[in-house]
Amino acid sequence: MRGRRLLVRLAEACLTVFVGLTATFAIVTVAPNTAVEGAVASASFASGGELNESELAALRETYRAARGLDRPLSARYVGYMLHMVTLQWGVSFSLDAPVTALVADRMARTLRYAIPGFLLAVVFGVTGGLYSTAREGTLRAAAIRVGGYLAFGIPNFWIAGVLLWVLALPPVAAALGPAWWLTRWAFPALLLATTLFASQLAYTRSETREVVGADFVRYLHAKGLSGRTVALRVLRNVVGPIAALFVTDLLAVLVVAIYVIEFAFGIPGFGRLSYDAAIERDMPLLLGTAVVVIVIGVLGNLLSDVIASAADPRTREGGES
Q1: For a tag on the chain, would you pick the N or C end, based on fewer CB atoms within 10 A?
Q2: How many domains does the chain have?
Q3: What sign does the CA torsion over 190, 194, 195, 201 have?
């Protein structure tokens, strides 16, 4: 029965990816293509305004033909879907390189700081939430809550500005030199962790507060089990909702936080790549980056559902009834 449930989830995931790809194609196709007029205007300016209307119209057609925009909409859609599925994402118009290679390279640069940041946020957010709930009323629990409020309330772009200002101070600059590892790895990971820490902490506290007063927790304490053992039992009951929140945070970071981080620290990562694709109206690159976000979101939700089913037997039973 568990296998059938997994197959159903996989089918739903595939359908979601299909709908997401179709919606992305529709949005990009319907949106006004300002890059065409921009290219024509640049050509007209370069010629000193000597191009007539027929020549400008020919330039528009040449531009559209070079990017496959002159083909029928149905043919473009079918070709787009086939290329997306087979990872033949074409060549970037603005960077003159294969889209798959560009996405892989830039994603690797983003994951270099994103993975440590995620791990720090999850470890400290979950453990901090469990500890502050179990030790409610203590000074340490209050300090953890205050830390979560500060991490949530202080804008990450302001923190990035402060870190860059500190690095620019003459004594610090003389001691550390270029310090590329700080601006390309350590500081971005720390900034990302502070962005996610607050939500992980708050949600863990909210979920565990409903569990710590349950009868089975009192029974475990009465048996004399250690606090760590009890915390692990409590965590097993809340890992499903926490995993779902982690997926939500992952998408939020992909579409919001990494743009701020990569612009602040000058990181040529996935966020910067997708931003440049949108500015340049680079259709292959824009669609390729959108596909990555869609697939990560769908696979993340599927993974969180599998984790919830594995951690909580009641979820499996409820899904098969």
Answers
A1: C
A2: 2
A3: positive
When pLDDT is averaged across residues 146-160 and rounded to a whole number, the result is 76
What is the dihedral angle through the alpha carbons of 156, 159, 160, 161, rounded to the nearest 10 degrees? 120
Q: With a threshold of 0.85, does the pTM exceed it?
A: no
Cβ-based neighbour number of residue 27 at 10 Å? 11
**Contact (CB, 8 A) for 187 and 163:** yes
Q: Any idea of the CA torsion for 306, 312, 316, 317, to the nearest 10 degrees?
A: -170
Tell me whether residue 73 is in a domain: no
Q: Which residues pair with 98 in a beta bridge?
A: 91
| 222 shares a domain with 91 | yes
Same domain, 221 and 114: yes
Q: Identify whether the C-beta of residue 266 lies closer than 8 Å to the C-beta of residue 183.
A: yes
**pLDDT at 270 > cutoff 70:** yes
Quote the distance between the C-alpha of residue 49 and its chain's center.
Answer: 45
Model pLDDT for residues 217-240, shown as the tens digit of each residue: 676 767 776 666 777 777 777 776
Q: Count, in order, helices (H) and strands (E) of the chain.
A: 16, 0
Among residues 249, 276, 272, which one has the least CA distance to residue 259?
Answer: 272
Helix, strand, coil shares, percent, the chain, to 5: 85, 0, 15
**Could you read off the pLDDT of 50-70 as tens digits, one per residue?**
666 776 677 667 766 666 666
Higher pLDDT, 58 or 35: 58
